[in-house]
Amino acid sequence: MNASIMCQLSDGQQWKLDSCKSCKCHRGMPSCAITRCNTTCAEGTRLVNFTGECCPKCVEVEGVCMAFGDPHYKTFDGKMFSFKGVGKYQLTADCENNSFSVKVANANKLSSTSTKRVALRYGDVRINLQQKGRIKYNGQRVKAPYKVEGRFRIEKVKDNVEVTLQNGVKLFWNGKSFLEITVPASYKNKLCGLCGNFNAKVQDDLKIKGGRIATDKELLSFGTSWCVGKRSDCAKKIRSVNKAVCSSKHRPETSYCKYMSTEPFSACDSKLDYIKYYKACKVDMCHCPNGKCYCESLMAYARECERLGVKLPNWQKASYCDASSLRRPNLSARKAHKSHRHNALYRYIPKNLNKTRSSVNPIPLQ
C-alpha cells in the first residue's frame, strides 16, 4: 500500500514496507527509516541470515573436524596435519561430561593408510559406520533412513551417510575414508582427541593425552597418545607404514590433485587457500591403491568452501569423483583425465609446487 494513502488513515500509525524499512505518519506526512545492520561479530561467532529478518545475527560457530585420505586431519580450531597411525584412535569425545565419543579404526594397504570404520557412542547408543555405507546400531545391521525418536536419526545424503544426535553432534561419512564431525558451540573447550579441544586456539590442538602440548615435529607422540588400546601396538604399526617415501615414478599420479585449482573450484579462491589440501592430495596420490585417492582431498576442500558460502555445483562430475566415475576402471579414468583436463590443470598451479616431493611421514600442513 502506498505510504501517502496509509497516512490518510491516522496520524502516528506505523507499518513496514519490507523487513528493513518501516514508516509512520507524522502530521499527515509519511516518515520512513531503514534499519542499519551490524556487520561485525566477535571472535568465535559469525553472521547468519534468518528468514523474515532484516539484519543477520551473530551466532556461535559450530566446530567442524575432518579426517580424510591417508589420513589427514583438520581440527575443530582449524589446524591441519597428517598422522598415519594404524589401529584404533579417539577422534573426539566429551571429556568433561562423557556424553559421547567418536573413535576410528585405521588400516593400511601397501604403504597407504586410511580410516575404515567409525564407532560412535552416545549414552547407551552404539553406531558403527563401515565401508560401502554399511551401518550397525547396537550390533544390528540397519539401513538409512533410520531413527530412534529423541536419540538420533540416520539419513542418506546422496551416496553418503549422515548421523545426527539429539545433542546436536553430526557425523558425515562417505562410506570409504572421509569423515566429518560437526559439534554445537555448547561443546567449546570440552572436547579431546585428535580433533583438538575446540577452544578457538589452534596453537594448543596437539595436546598429548593427559599431558603437554606437542610440537609439529612430535606428531607421532601426539597421535599415539590417543591410541585406543595398547599404545605400543599402534606405534609398532606406524613405524612399518612410515618407511615408504614417494618416488619420482608416482609424480604423474599427483597431477590429479590440480583439479582443485580449476573450475568449479576456482570460485572459492578468494575465500579459502587450497594449497594445504593440494599438499595432502599429493601425499595420498603418491601411494594410492585405487587411483581415486585425490577425491577425498577434493571433498574436504569442497565442503569447506560450501561452509564459507561458495556453491560448487557438480564438482564431483567435473573432477571424475561422482559415483559413476568411481566405479570405472582406473584406465578409463586416466584417459578421461588426460583428454579433458590435462592442459587446464597445469595452467594454474604454482611452479614450485609441481616440483615438490611428498613424504608419507607425519607432516604438519599448517
Structural summary, described in words:
With 366 residues, the protein is an alpha+beta fold. The chain folds into 3 domains: 3-34; 63-241, Mog1/PsbP, alpha/beta/alpha sandwich (Protein Transport Mog1p, Chain A, 3-Layer(aba) Sandwich); 248-354, no CATH class. The protein contains 10 helices and 20 strands. The chain has helices at 3-7, 219-225, 231-241, 251-254, 275-286, 294-307, 315-318, 323-326, 330-348, 351-354, and strands at residues 14-16, 21-26, 29-34, 45-48, 57-60, 63-68, 72-74, 80-82, 87-94, 100-109, 112-122, 125-129, 135-137, 140-142, 146-148, 152-157, 160-165, 170-173, 179-183, 191-192. The strands form 4 sheets. The chain has an 8-stranded antiparallel beta sheet with strand order 8-7-6-19-18-17-16-15, with helices on one face. The longest helix is centred in the C-terminal third of the chain and has 19 residues, at 330-348.
CATH class (first level) name of the largest domain: Alpha Beta
Averaged pLDDT: 81
Please report which band the strand proportion falls in: under 5%, 5-15%, 15-25%, 25-35%, 35-45% or over 45%. 25-35%
Low-confidence stretches: 240-244, 335-366
Under CATH, the homologous superfamily of the largest domain reads Mog1/PsbP, alpha/beta/alpha sandwich
Brief synopsis:
This protein is of the alpha+beta class. It has helices at residues 3-7, 219-225, 231-241, 251-254, 275-286, 294-307, 315-318, 323-326, 330-348, 351-354, and strands at 14-16, 21-26, 29-34, 45-48, 57-60, 63-68, 72-74, 80-82, 87-94, 100-109, 112-122, 125-129, 135-137, 140-142, 146-148, 152-157, 160-165, 170-173, 179-183, 191-192. The chain has three domains: 3-34; 63-241, Mog1/PsbP, alpha/beta/alpha sandwich (Protein Transport Mog1p, Chain A); 248-354, no CATH class.
